Amino acid sequence: MSKKENDFDYITEIENLEVPDMLKVGFKFYIERNDLKIQDKKEFDKVLDKFKKIKMGD
């Protein structure tokens, strides 16, 4: 799989999160299931916040 130079590597960002592995897997699945195209860190954080709200039942 070739990556374009400007592709944001959300997989690495997920790996770097200080959360249990189960949450990392869930978050990765959430991104892929919703076919989210994350372009940068700001967008990543926004999606992560949304995911946390769903998980925490907010």
Architecture overview:
The N and C termini lie far apart (37 Å). By secondary structure, this protein is mostly helical. It has three helices and no strands. The model has no long low-confidence stretch (mean pLDDT 88). The longest helix is centred in the C-terminal third of the chain and has 16 residues, at 41-56. It has helices spanning 10-16, 21-33, 41-56.
Low-confidence segments, given as residue ranges, are none
Rg = 12 Å
Instruction: Please indicate the percent range of residues in DSSP E strands (runs of 2 or more).
Output: under 5%
Number of helices: 3
Roughly what is the average pLDDT, rounded to an integer?
A: 88
Distance between the ends: 37 Å
What summary fits the major beta sheet? none
Helix/strand class: mainly alpha
Shape: globular
How many DSSP-defined strands?
0
The string of secondary-structure elements, in order, is: HHH
| Helical proportion, percent range | 55-70%
